[in-house]
Amino acid sequence: MEMNHVFFAMGLTVLAGISTGVGSAIAFFANRTNTKFLSAALGFSAGVMIYVSMIEIFVEAKNSLNNAMGESTGGWMTVISFFAGIVFVAVIDRLVPEQGNPHEVKTIEDAVKADERTETKKLMRMGTMTALAIAIHNFPEGLATFASALQDPSLGIAIAVAIAIHNIPEGIAVSIPIYYATGDKMKAFRLSFLSGLSEPLGALIGYLILMPFLNEMVFGIIFAMVAGIMLFISLDELLPTAREYGEAHLSIYGLTLGMMVMAVSLLLFIN
């Protein structure tokens, strides 16, 4: 295998991964006292994660496991792995100390008066868990982009562009809660940007270590678990927090918009 092909494939993977930085830059234009924006942005983030987990990742997992194990066994393994991902993140969620019981918050100023520390830790924890879920999701994506580019450069370019497009709203999903928690735009940008770097990391580790051992069954199990993790975080963290800020309708509008953005990016990927 020629090294220039390896460098080309790695370059595509890096570009796809760092596109989360475009979404994370949204924090630079946000007004921290604007809870309407926060509510809509959290709903948008939930829409992104729910749609990509159920429409893309779960289906991809099922296809991989069906190919590896047969339709019946593959279907059961997909469902088991999906709920195993939910149980896994739920256990982690229970082990992380609670920062306080949810309560109604109308504005950021009210949050400061009521319990600034509780709200800040809650948003920070949510942003960090979202970053972790997206990083885990991006890891096999990076490996897939890298392997596709090695096999067929034109296919690699198409996949890298599609992944870059749908990494932009994922960057928003990480940066907005962290910015509202800390008020630090650079910190929100850095953490969101770093979550995208798991894609080139996945490519690098795959190239150096894992490529001989990875198969469709392993990929399918990982993808199904990631779908469960992302769904749990969306339903348990993002949507409830969006509603707490008193903008229930905005959170649903944001959720719908997030799903639409992901749907368009996936159609571009398919075409």
Detailed description of the structure:
With 271 residues, this protein is mainly alpha-helical. The protein has a domain at 3-54 and 101-213 and 247-270. It is built from 10 helices and no strands. The protein has helices spanning 3-18, 20-24, 35-69, 71-95, 108-151, 153-182, 185-196, 198-210, 216-244, 248-270. The longest helix has 44 residues, at 108-151. It is globular. The two termini are 28 Å apart.
Characteristic key phrases:
mainly alpha
C-alpha-based Rg, rounded: 19 Å
Helix and strand run: HHHHHHHHHH
Task: Give the helix/strand class.
Answer: mainly alpha
The separation of the N and C termini measures 28 Å
Number of strands: 0
Largest sheet: none
Low-confidence stretches: 98-114
Broad shape: globular
**Beta-strand residue percentage:** under 5%
Q: Please give the share of residues in helix.
A: over 70%
What would you call the quaternary organization?
A: single chain
Helix count? 10
Mean pLDDT: 76
